[in-house]
Design brief:
CATH superfamily of the largest domain: HAD superfamily/HAD-like
CATH topology of the largest domain: Rossmann fold
Radius of gyration: 19 Å
Number of strands: 6
Oligomer: single chain
CATH architecture of the largest domain: 3-Layer(aba) Sandwich
Order of helices and strands: EHHHHEHHEHEHEHEHH
Helix content: 40-55%
Number of domains: 2
Length: 253
């Protein structure tokens, strides 16, 4: 059982894709490999199947999306090599700048853990290969829908207060509705979700908005906990809605 002794009972819950790791770069590399190995038509089939399964499952399954391509290509070395490409991908090279240093900083304020959506094959492998698994000392929880697993999260990572760091504003809003002032939500405007968030002005704003994960290294614990009340400066509110260009957040004293 996780202990929070000596850390003011605070657990930092970190998303992975587009929060610690630039998943858009992985997708671009995967797309280029698919085009080279199996051609444009099969590549289109792959991404269509990927999107269909993502809609059905609620999470990305890059390996599972390869299965429908087997018909007629059972001996195609290009297709057979795609699983190795995905599983052996150098995710450590896709970490955002200072991502692991930021995890280490959060570890001085509380306990850092991973709370991620994903499958049970590629997602844990990605977390291990990137170095994130070791950075959080194995405190990793991977589920289908994070916002539906809050009771399980509390059992695995008990704390007086939780801080959720994610690039999906809708998920953060759902978690905040459930946990209230016991949760600080930190919205990282990385990846493709901030573009989608621009039209979601009906959602309550996150407690904290940052442009890059490395910015969290400038926060101390009192500042993070003070934000849990839901108070947010006007500039950050506009940024969360995607209506104003970002400005630099003031560092903690």
């Amino acid at each position: 059982m996780l202990t929070t002794d000596g850390h003011d009972g605070v657990v930092f819950l970190l998303d992975v894709d587009n929060t610690l790791i630039g998943n858009e770069s992985f997708r671009a590399d995967l797309d280029a490999r698919l085009l080279r190995e199996i051609g444009e038509q099969a590549s289109r089939r792959y991404w269509q199947g990927y999107e269909d399964e993502r809609e059905r499952l609620g999470y990305a399954d890059y390996l599972g999306a390869l299965e429908p391509l087997r018909d007629g290509h059972e001996a195609d070395p290009g297709l057979l090599g795609m699983s190795d490409f995905v599983l052996d991908y150098p995710f450590d090279e896709r970490l955002y700048p200072e991502a692991l240093a930021t995890v280490a900083h959060l570890g001085t304020l509380g306990l850092a853990a991973v709370l991620s959506d994903g499958d049970v094959v590629l997602q844990p492998r990605k977390i291990r290969r990137s170095g994130v698994w070791d950075a959080v000392q194995g405190r990793v929880m991977i589920c289908l829908h994070k916002q539906s697993m809050l009771d399980a999260m509390r059992r695995h990572f008990p704390a007086r207060h939780h801080v959720m760091v994610d690039d999906k504003i809708e998920l953060l809003a759902a978690m905040k509705r459930s946990m209230g002032k016991d949760l600080t939500t930190v919205y990282v405007r990385q990846g493709h979700y901030p573009v989608e968030a621009a039209g979601q002005t009906h959602l309550p704003p996150p407690d904290i908005v940052i442009e890059r994960i490395a910015e969290l290294s400038a926060f101390d614990l009192p500042r993070l906990l003070a934000s849990a009340s839901g108070a947010m400066d006007a500039d950050a509110t506009l940024r969360a809605a995607g209506t104003e260009s970002p400005s630099t957040l003031q560092e903690s004293p």
